[in-house]
Write a structure and sequence with these properties.
- The protein is α/β, with parallel strands linked by helices and 352 residues long.
- It has 13 helices and 5 strands.
- The protein has a 5-stranded parallel beta sheet with strand order 2-3-4-1-5, with helices on both faces.
- The termini are far apart.
Length: 352
């Protein structure tokens, strides 16, 4: 139980990461996926695959399926994928409560168990979570298990659940036989903006809260920062409520969400007003260098013209060479000064 639950009027933790089926928020895709899986099990259709990004709710969906199964449906749930053929059969047997007695060919014992269950009106379902970690040869071995059937029904129902990499594996040439056996294949997508708002409200209601501390803008900020991934929504909201409790804040707004998301490294930290954008700093340096470079030709031209004028006036042997030279140079400085140069040049008659 989280420390902030009573502060926000909750009877239990609203954003726990545990796959609790009572917190399942059934979006249209989730409802469709659950209905299809229930149909697969009840009608003994055989083989299904469900995929989705990490945190999209696959495990919660599978737990809901198991809880909704009737008394005649026996389920085996393998959340830690086996790596060898021997481990595969041992894991299935352990989940179903079967003793293989060290049989050289465990499939015979499994076949007998599946047939016995069917004759009693029952159904056996084996679920492999994180199935993208199963070796290719074990996926083929699982397909062979589904060959066990009567003329009207499959004796074993198999559900593979995993990340998008599982789709890539199934689409490979090596697993084309398995792909042809699939009767249901579905990919869960992240929540949309409005579903994220409703998801947050539904979790709080399921936890017993009378009202939500999250503003509408805060909920939309949660969606932006999480990408609609339910697990990330839970992480952000849980941290935001803990922060709100610590700061004695009954209302959680957009700024609170962005601060929490930045702390979790889900978004960049908010920029302070006095910090310059890196691009602005680079631009300022570049502009300064450009301006400095653009002034060089004018300065060099001024020096060359000044020297040439000095020689011309001296050669002409005019009565007042220094006065004319000073006037010409003054005009030149005025012309250059109008083009942005700020340097000043002073002339001393004694040094000319």
């Amino acid at each position: 139980m989280a420390v902030y639950e009573g502060y926000y009027g909750c009877r239990r933790e609203p954003f726990s990461l545990s796959p609790d089926p009572s917190f399942l928020y059934a979006t249209a895709p989730h409802r469709e996926a659950l209905a299809q899986l229930q149909y697969l099990v009840q009608q003994r259709k055989g083989f299904a695959v469900i995929t989705g990004e990490v945190g999209t709710g696959k495990t919660t969906l599978l737990r809901s399926l198991i809880e909704s199964a009737g008394p005649k449906i026996q389920t085996g749930y393998l959340f830690n994928p086996p790596r060898t053929r021997r481990a595969l059969y041992q894991s299935i047997a352990a989940e179903l409560g079967i003793s293989l007695n060290g049989a050289a060919d465990p499939t015979a014992d499994l076949n007998q168990y599946f047939l016995s269950t069917f004759e009693k009106g029952g159904t056996v379902v084996v679920i492999f979570d994180e199935a993208q970690s199963l070796p290719m040869e074990l996926l083929e071995e699982i397909r062979l298990l589904t060959n066990i059937e009567t003329s009207s029904a499959k004796l074993l129902q198999v559900i593979l659940a995993g990340q998008p990499e599982l789709d890539t594996m199934i689409d490979s040439t090596a697993l084309r036989a398995l792909r042809q056996r699939l009767v249901f294949r579905y990919s869960l997508a992240p929540l949309g903006p409005e579903d994220t708002v409703r998801y947050i409200g539904a979790r709080l209601a399921a936890a017993g809260a009378d009202k939500s501390p999250f503003t509408l803008k805060a909920c939309r900020a949660v969606h932006r920062c999480s990408g609609g991934i339910p697990r990330l929504v839970n992480v952000i909201c849980d941290n935001a409520m803990l922060t709100g409790y610590a700061t004695n804040s009954r209302v959680i707004d957009e700024e609170n969400i962005e601060e929490v998301a930045a702390d979790l490294k889900l978004i960049a930290a908010p920029r302070r007003e006095y910090e310059l954008e890196p691009a602005m700093v680079v631009m300022s340096a570049a502009e300064g260098a450009q301006r400095h470079t653009s002034r060089r030709p004018l300065i060099f031209a001024f020096i060359i013209v000044s020297v040439m004028l000095a020689f011309l006036i001296a050669a002409a042997n005019t009565p007042a060479p220094l006065t004319q030279l000073q006037g010409l140079l003054g005009n030149a400085m005025h012309w250059i000064g109008n083009r942005g140069l700020t340097s000043a040049v002073s002339f001393d008659r004694a040094t000319v």
